[in-house]
Amino acid sequence: MPLDLAGKVILLTGAASGIGRGTAIKLHELGAILTITDVNEVGIAETLSLCGGDASRHTTLVLDVSQAAQVEQRVAEVVSKHGRIDHVFNCAGVNPTSMPLTETTEAYFDKLVAVNLKGMYNVTKATIPHMTAPGGSYVNVSSISGLHPTRGTAIYCATKYGVIGFSKCMALELGPKGIRVNIVAPGYIDTPSNAGIVKGTAEARASMEQGNALGRMGMPDDIAGVVAFLMSDEARYMNGSVVEVDGMLKT
What we know:
Elements: E1 9-12, H1 18-29, E2 33-38, H2 41-50, E3 59-62, H3 68-82, E4 87-90, H4 106-127, E5 137-141, H5 154-174, E6 180-186, H6 195-198, H7 202-210, H8 220-231, E7 242-245
Helix pairs in contact: 1-8, 3-4, 4-5
């Protein structure tokens, strides 16, 4: 049965590129009404263009999820326009730079925690009072690094493990209201923000591909379809689930 998100009001963070952009396009194709947010104003304008360019249907808002007051303001704008929020896609995040812990800085730690974890807290806290209940849902982006430790990414892993713990607690807290909370844990995805692609070599990419059972890296579309399913009524009994979307990494 085809997924149906027609008319659903969906707020997306981190939607200027990569997984966020790919998911926005997918949700647009399924008939949703989108609020496309990111710190990158040019990027969200490009995402809107890829979603048909219809500014009367979709909205773009510059949003730094680490700033609680700004999040509250933007959520108020969404609710003023649409009267409700049906689904939230918490995708805003900072990818890691692989380095020993002794080479990290307090500023690096603060940035990752502020965006990857506190940002999700800010958006979730601000939207809960306006979520459709029952029937609303959150889909939060963790990572395979939120399930399996990786050398040189202790701070990033901590934030992504935290996303899973936070999301599962929210699933318990919001479930009685009929609001579901689920998590996607992507593997190596070919996006502009993926440090392994942007800064890596052809050999590094080949290693990623060869280390995957499907023999390739993931694409934003591979995640977008899962997100759409989790928001849909087809996933109505999924709550607190962590869905690994990684092509099966070889061990």
